[in-house]
Amino acid sequence: MSVPTTASSGPVVRAEDVRVWYGTERGPVRAVDGVTFDLRPGEILGLVGESGCGKSTLGRGLLGLLPDGAKMDGALEFRGENLLTLSKRELAERRGVDLGMIFQEPLTRLNPLMRISEHFRETLRTHEPGLSKAEMDRRALDVLRRMGIPPTRYRSYPHEFSGGMRQRLMIALALVLRPAFVVADEPTTALDVLVEAQIIRILHDLRREFETSLLLITHNLGIVAEACDRVAVMYAGEIVEIGDARQVFSDPQHPYTRELLRSTISLSTTGLHYIPGAPPDLVEPPPACKFHPRCPDAMQVCATRWPAPVQLPAGSRAQCWAAEERNRLIRLTEDERRPLERRELSVADEA
Amino acid sequence: MPTKPEATATAVASDSLFDVEELEVHYDLRGGSLARLFGRDTGVVRAVDGVSFQLRRGEVLGLVGESGSGKTTLGRALLGLVRPTSGAVRYHAGQGPVDIATSSNRELRGLRRELQMVFQDPNAALNPSMDIETAVGHPLKIHGIAKGAELRHRVADALERVGLAPAERYMSKYPSDLSGGQKQRAVLARAVILGPELLVADEPISMLDMSVRAKILELMLGLKADLGLTYVYITHDLASAKFFCDRVAIMYLGRIVEIGPTDEIFASPKHPYTKALLAAIPEPDPERMVPRDLPRGEIPDAAKPPMGCHFHPRCPEAVAQCGWESRDLRVLLEEHWTRRDPAAYEREGDLVGSLDKLDTPAKEATLGTGSSAAEVHQLLDRIRGEDPSEPLWSGVEEVVEGPDGVSVRFKAGVDPALRQSDGVEVACIHHPVSVTLEPARGDG
What we know:
The complex is a heterodimer.
Chain A: E1 13-24, E2 27-39, E3 44-48, H1 55-62, E4 70-78, E5 81-82, H2 88-94, E6 99-102, H3 106-109, H4 116-127, H5 133-146, H6 163-175, E7 181-185, H7 193-210, E8 213-217, H8 221-227, E9 230-235, E10 238-244, H9 245-250, H10 255-263, E11 310-311, E12 317-318, H11 321-326, H12 334-337
Parallel strand pairs in A: 3-8, 3-9, 6-7, 7-8
Antiparallel strand pairs in A: 1-2, 1-4, 4-5, 9-10, 10-12, 11-12
Helix pairs in contact in A: 4-5, 5-6, 6-7
Chain B: H1 6-11, E1 16-28, H2 32-38, E2 44-56, E3 60-64, H3 71-78, E4 86-93, E5 96-99, H4 105-111, E6 115-118, H5 122-125, H6 132-142, H7 148-161, H8 168-171, H9 180-192, E7 198-202, H10 210-227, E8 230-235, H11 238-244, E9 247-252, E10 255-261, H12 262-267, H13 272-280, H14 326-338, H15 342-352, E11 364-367, H16 373-386, H17 391-394, E12 396-402, E13 405-410, E14 419-421, E15 424-426
Parallel strand pairs in B: 3-8, 3-9, 6-7, 7-8
Antiparallel strand pairs in B: 1-2, 1-4, 4-5, 9-10, 10-15, 11-13, 12-13, 14-15
């Protein structure tokens, strides 16, 4: 898929070594552990991984929506400005206008006592004071129209809409402020397959209509393959592989990406595959490569030294010793290359 | 890694475990708190609306559809968990046939040993204050089958059978100590501990992480082979149904629209709804793109299903006889206005007047007033001109200007019944190709 970018336009979002941790009785939970990526204007980046890999925490962290008690560190730039040094108030001013969010459960985000028109007027009044009522309605109707919601429904209440319509409303409410960057967290999980496909198509077409950059968090690899330009695969708080979605899906470099693809049940599934074990406890994650206890390709080196993220000739970036060796970027010693004896995983040690 | 056991597909004996005939399950909306909640004062929801099929001993039958298609209600009716409004659910038990639809609660209680269910959410299916040993052994206790050491032994046996081994490690645990996959295993152990004939599994993997889904399906295939079970697999996920089922029934608004062998249906889907579902599944295939020709809208209100074929308002293959009616005209106008600017909408909206009168299903729809009739007529002609291929227009008999406005009269529609077509049964006017179009359940 082509991205409408010019060589001169810099990234909208640049995250470098971002970390998020929560304090617990047993010690800090490192939910996001050194994440680096950038997002270009109009680009859709898919963020995938099992539950508990830090996807949602990262998404919320990017918008400054972490709960009290969570700490964030690293560098996070939005159009060249470091968001992590802003005060709470300054950050709140940017949310909505510059940074948008689309949630999973649309009904819980809409006020049942307010008409759709009032939702839009409230949003616009808060973030863009000074607009006339007619101007607010014009803006709202325009974005609703693009989401396929007819103007006849403008004065309806949320309960009068179907599930798919409500999700369109949420997208419209986020886009009416024309944010440059939107995080969509599992936006289609509660929807049926036909409606899901409609919403994915809307998200895919956003950049053409609004030039919005999108971080699409999902557990569904099929959605990423169909709607995203690039994909980032998260495991235990780290991005273990990131690159062009087609490239990563047709030639995955990290064993976790490969096994995730293989364990997805799709129409072409003829045999069942799965990844043994479960994602690790993030208070005490495994040393070195965090995936090594579950990795079918694990070598001695994987349990002793942490693999740094490396740009691979294929274009993607991965952090995996086996991938580096395969691409002749390093030479491991005989000892380092010896297969790791895997601890027997019980059948039921699973997610 | 195990693959789908080919043997099951071919070795299935043709003797049936269940014969479901013209089953209807309606929920009354009249009076009662439901009516108040929905702001209606009359009506019935036809959750299951005339369904007939055979469930063969030892097969896996998939009930596939979107939410609101009636698949869960149908699954529950097989177990006697909902009372059918009419029709028969004949269960061929070891001691002779029983009609679940008319059985007393007492008879049903006895049958529960043979007919079990697994629910979607393992968190809700397990009592949080009951340890795994008590939960899994509960059925044995309720039916007075085992107690004491014997009970414990059978619980341990069931736990190991579902992969929760060693059993001692799990027996004293509480649901909150287990992962999602482990909980679903415990639920399966509880379902098979009585040695049932039939297991109705309602979305057993959809709440689980994708890395575990394959494992639970594999476990279910193993249990089926070991215990000689028959499965009804209820799902909205066609990909897992394709892998898991011997036959699938595609459901839409309380009816089966296509049923047949899995291989046949996936290789050449016939009903436009089946085709749409298959096209919409996001596949992790780098060469695929977002599909463009998706059916519009969503599954309609089951209390007021569309006239004619229930799928016609969303159907990309709809033709003149599919049952066009007043509500379709409302959707058409609303879609038209999403393409017009607000000023044009205001002008045209005033001209046409309130669309609410189109909400009552009718074969004739009146728009505008006597004085605006000519202009409304022109507007309709203009909309038609913008997209002459819109199938609704083929279903229009005539457009007449009258003293109350413009009347749009629709042609009579056909509500197609399930018919044999190339090895499957399908309810669509286009199938089988050779049959001449005849009203099956005419709605005039």
